[in-house]
Amino acid sequence: MKFTLNATDGRARNGQLMFDRGAVDTPAFMPVGTYGTVKAMTPEDLTEVGAQIILGNTFHLMLRPGTEVIRAHGDLHDFMHWEGPILTDSGGFQVWSLAEMRKISEDGVRFSSPVNGDKVFLSPEESMRVQQELGSDIIMAFDECTPYPATQEQARQSMELSMRWAGRCSVAHGVHSSALFGIVQGGMYPGLRKESLDALLEIGFDGYAIGGLSVGETEEERLMVLDNLTPHMPSDRPRYLMGVGTPEDLIAGVQNGIDMFDCVMPTRNARNGHLFTRFGDVKVRNARHKTDSGPIDATCTCYTCKGVTHANGSVSGGFSRAYMHHLDRCNEMLGPMLASIHNLHYFLNLMQEVRTALEAGRFGAYVTQFHADRARGV
After folding, report:
1. Torsion of CA 240, 245, 248, 254, to 10 degrees
2. DSSP string, 104-120
3. Cα separation of 26 and 21, whole Å?
């Protein structure tokens, strides 16, 4: 992986990640494909909406179908027919979410599989092995996600364990061709976050992620962590804010110097009839959309809103709010498919607009207009 920084505006950055499998322009939003698929989207759909990199999840893929099945196809790219780069989460967050089903020690984490109850052990070394077998282009260090709320002592113990694990991940990763990212922990305590970053910098990673957010903290706490941390992060390495979030969260992250984002929100909300637009959010389940023949967003150029021009020149128009309401009420699978296309297009187009504004030196004006548009409502 090669990272190039092209433009800055305050803390906001525009750059590019270059991999053997293609380029990723930053700031970037990465659709989440937990089980080797972005829900309700084909690989061709992802390309069409502008995805350049997607996520897979180590924890879930090692349990189902298992790396031996995936390796029989080549790697995860071949298994799911995705030709672009893939980032894989280490599994730390999923293990954290198991709560009483897991036991953490210095060696790693023992837990009962949520699939069949089998006893499973995941360590820094095992996480590296699995991610390398998946053929990931970006591998994440195995860490413990600090719970929220946590006392300063609890956050310190958790952070220091993650830093010891980070060192083991670096050794186990060796000279593998994929990029390895370290993950900053430390809860809501700026001093601990800085200690965590310093420890990772001493080890040395290809990129640096901020973990342990989007776990129940307030927006003010999250922004406080970013405001205190990102000025200390190396400018020549990509910065990844894990698991965040809404369009407003992404803009705030870019303002604080973040380059990479991921979140399940676009596809999860789509499956619940919640669509994001330039002028606020549309909940198509609401009865007021039952007879609305207009599109979800008249300014949107996605397939769902605008339709498609066929090879013979004929045009199939977009789908109306009334039709989306009908699909949702009837539990038709086309509903989540069309909604997912729209939501991911919106998120990815938002990042494209941000990059364009940064390149033109008008990011501040763009942010002002973004908030005004979103507040206007649909």
Report:
1. 0
2. E-SS-EEEE-TTT--EE
3. 16
Q: Does residue 19 have a pLDDT over 80?
A: yes
Helix (H, G, I), strand (E, B), or coil: what is residue 207? strand
Chain-centre distance of CA 231, in angstroms?
Answer: 22
Integer Cα distance of 2 and 359 in angstroms: 20
Domain ranges (residues) in the chain = 2-263, 270-376
| Chain segment 235-289, per-residue pLDDT in tens | 999 999 999 999 999 999 999 999 999 999 999 999 999 999 999 999 999 999 9
Evaluate whether 91 touches 131 at the Cβ level (below 8 Å). Answer: no
Report d(CA 109, CA 100) in Å as an integer: 12
CA angle 77, 82, 84 (to 5 degrees): 90
β-sheet with 119-122: strand ranges across? 102-104, 109-112, 119-122
* 314 pLDDT higher than 90: no
Amino acid found at 243: G
- Name the least confident of 18-27, 39-48, 99-108: 99-108
Task: Just list the catalytic residues.
Answer: 89, 262
Find all residues with CB under 8 Å of 157, minimum gap 6, and list them: none
Looking at the chain, the whole-number percentage of residues with pLDDT higher than 70 is 100
Neighbouring residues of 316: CB distance < 8 A, sequence distance ≥ 6: 307, 308, 310
Kindly state the tokens that stand for 330: 């009837």
Please report the pLDDT score of residue 133 as a whole number.
Answer: 98
Query: Cβ contacts of residue 283 below 8 Å, gap of 6+?
Result: 273, 274, 275
Span 35-52, pLDDT tens digits = 999 999 999 999 999 999
Cα separation of 59 and 44, whole Å? 26
Gyration radius (Cα) of the chain, Å: 21
Pick the CATH number of 2-263 from 3.40.50.300, 3.20.10.10, 3.30.2170.10, 3.20.20.105: 3.20.20.105
Chain centre distance of CA 190: 23
**pTM exceeds 0.85:** yes
